[in-house]
Specification:
Elements lengths: L1 H22 L3 H14 L7 H21 L3 H4 L3 H25 L5 H10 L5 H10 L8 H11 L1 H15 L6 H29 L7 H19 L4 H13 L6 H26 L2 H31 L6 H9 L5 H13 L7 H26 L14 H6 L2 E7 L20 E8 L2 E3 L12 E7 L9 E5 L20 E7 L5 E2 L12 E6 L8 H8 L8 H4 L9
Antiparallel strand pairs: 1-4, 2-3, 2-4, 5-8, 6-7, 6-8
Length: about 550
């Protein structure tokens, strides 16, 4: 019977996702409401300990995959702003909100600060879900800023929650030592496990592709548990692990993306459903006025005050500040931290869980629904591109691949119209970048010098199973400093392209030297008596590339930004 109910819940969750995409309602809010409905019709659930354990595992997956999906190339230009908001921004928001709870709502000072700390971080699952579902490709790299901030600020909120919970419980732990150990050890353990894991992924060979996802799950668990044992912030370590591995090339990465994309979705559905099921409608309604007051204060005062105060040194646009302020959605992490607090301390004078629960539900409903409206009102939308480019798994999952080519001086293409380009194979001109602006490649558009032309086409060129193998030569790799003719390649592998770090394309011959950072593309070939390996090798030894558009213009086989 229980399995039947779980199956029904998952089907209903899928319909909730469709409803969200059609009407703009945050999907994660619908999962919470679904849980509340099941609770209201008689499915009683008040096991806070199980909810705490499930929330911990779910947050581990969400935090890791949030880092794994962050495209560092897109996020790097706004990394300083994002880090400031994810650290000092959380502290400021928490303290301002805590003071409001104490002086306006008459909470105890420590309880007020605890609530402020619990709801101090923005929710990655909610923010990324809205950005993707509504394709909010925001100007000034704002989407990347929001993703990096919301993905990395939960550890700060967790640390602050631990601090004020320790004070409330009268713990003898030194607060400065607690904060330092949480942050420093979290960072250290994250980088250590990330580095070791990256090495292992490039050395280990598994018999089945699906085993790479199992190996990744083991690394996640070991990273979190080891960091927690030594007193560090396990969530921070997992986020560092995710960013490091998500932005490198390794075997099995595509399979990991597909597995974790579905697994993360299931964990989010389960987490938000359980959080809704755990709530009591009567207690929720009692806490509603207080939750509404705190949510409105955070949305109108605390978050904007923090954003404007901390971002002004970076000289952002006013409409960008407005957008960042509105995007401070509270969600799963806050409710999970509230469950942890309830399990740790029994003598609260207020209903911590339902207050935090109400804040997150209202925040998701109000701010989540207003984000698309605000983006249009403040002229923050860039309709000529997709927000999916800010996620690593966009390229890893897509059946469409992208090639870039820079139009060099004296190119025969200068002056040509897009409609007159003679593109061999099934490629289209996806977009043109000119002087930092995106040009929609309509037929009458003329190609100019220094244009960056982006071509799109099918990523898999051969449905029979012969596919390209693409990877980057990392530091310390055994091929560095060797000629292609000296590499001990499997008999069915042939290197067909080498791209240097400076984007130079090299058509490989036997005397081509492999260097650190090279992007190597190999093809898997099958040999027969009619076409021996020697002939295949000779076919690759091309001294001069032919005069095609691809070679003449040095198309770069890399991800489009």
């Amino acid at each position: 019977m229980n399995y039947l109910i779980i199956g029904i819940i998952l089907i209903l969750a899928l319909f909730a996702i469709r409803l969200s995409n059609k009407h703009g309602i945050p999907a994660l809010l619908l999962f919470i409401v679904l849980g509340m409905v099941f609770g209201a019709i008689g499915f009683e659930f008040n096991d806070f300990e199980f909810a705490d354990s499930f929330a911990t595992v779910a947050l581990m997956v969400i935090m890791f995959y949030g880092g794994f999906g962050t495209n560092w190339k897109m996020a790097k230009p706004v990394a300083k702003e994002a880090i400031v908001l994810s650290s000092l921004g959380v502290v400021a928001t928490a303290l301002i909100t805590g003071l409001f709870c104490h002086y306006v709502l008459n909470f105890g000072l420590i309880e007020g600060m605890l609530i402020g700390s619990i709801v101090g971080s923005t929710d990655y699952a909610s923010v990324s879900n809205i950005l993707r579902s509504k394709n909010l490709n925001l100007k000034y790299n704002t989407a990347s800023l929001l993703e990096l901030e919301s993905g990395s600020n939960d550890p700060t909120a967790y640390t602050m929650t631990m601090v004020f919970l320790s004070v409330l419980m009268g713990s003898a732990v030194s607060i400065p030592v607690l904060i330092l150990s949480q942050v420093a050890l979290g960072l250290l353990m994250g980088f250590v496990f990330a580095y070791v894991s990256g090495k292992l992924f490039n050395k280990l060979l598994f018999g089945a592709d699906g085993l790479y996802a199992v190996f990744m799950a083991a690394i996640m668990l070991i990273t979190y548990a080891s960091t927690d044992i030594v007193g560090g912030n396990g969530y921070l370590a997992l986020y560092i692990l995710g960013i490091y591995l998500g932005n490198m090339e390794f075997r099995g990465k595509r399979d990991i993306v597909f597995f974790y994309d579905g697994f993360t979705e299931i964990m989010q559905i389960g987490l938000f459903f359980i959080l809704g099921l755990l709530s009591n409608l009567t207690d929720f309604l009692k806490a509603f006025p207080i939750a509404l007051a705190i949510m409105l204060f955070m949305t109108i005062i605390a978050r904007p005050l923090t954003v404007y105060g901390l971002m002004l040194p970076f000289r952002p646009k006013r409409n960008q500040l407005n957008m960042i302020s509105l995007a401070g959605i509270r969600g799963a992490a806050a409710i999970a931290f509230a469950i942890m607090a309830v399990n740790s301390y029994e003598f609260f004078t207020v209903d911590i869980y339902h207050i935090v629960f109400g804040i997150c539900v209202l925040s998701s409903l109000v701010q989540g629904s207003l984000m698309p409206v605000g983006a249009k009102k403040w002229d923050m939308l860039d309709p000529n591109d997709t927000v999916l480019k800010t996620f690593n798994y966009y390229q890893n999952k897509a059946e469409i691949g992208f090639l870039e080519t820079r139009i060099h001086p004296n190119s025969y293409l200068i002056g040509s119209k897009v409609k007159d380009l003679n593109l061999t194979f099934d490629f289209i001109v996806a977009k043109i970048e000119r002087n930092g602006k995106t040009i929609v490649p309509r037929g009458h558009i003329t190609i100019e010098e220094n244009d960056l032309v982006v071509l799109g086409g099918e990523k898999h060129f051969d449905l029979s199973g012969h596919d390209l193998i693409e990877f980057t030569i990392p530091k310390g790799h055994q091929w560095i400093g060797k000629y292609i003719k000296d590499l001990e390649l499997p008999p069915d592998r042939l290197i067909i392209i080498v791209q240097r770090k400076d984007s130079e394309i090299v058509v490989p011959i036997g005397d081509t030297l492999i260097t650190e950072g090279d992007q190597v593309i190999m093809i898997k070939v099958e040999h027969s008596l009619e076409f021996p390996r020697e002939e295949v090798e000779k076919s690759a030894e091309i001294k001069e590339p032919t005069e095609t558009m691809e070679t003449k213009e040095s198309i770069e086989p890399k991800e489009s930004n």
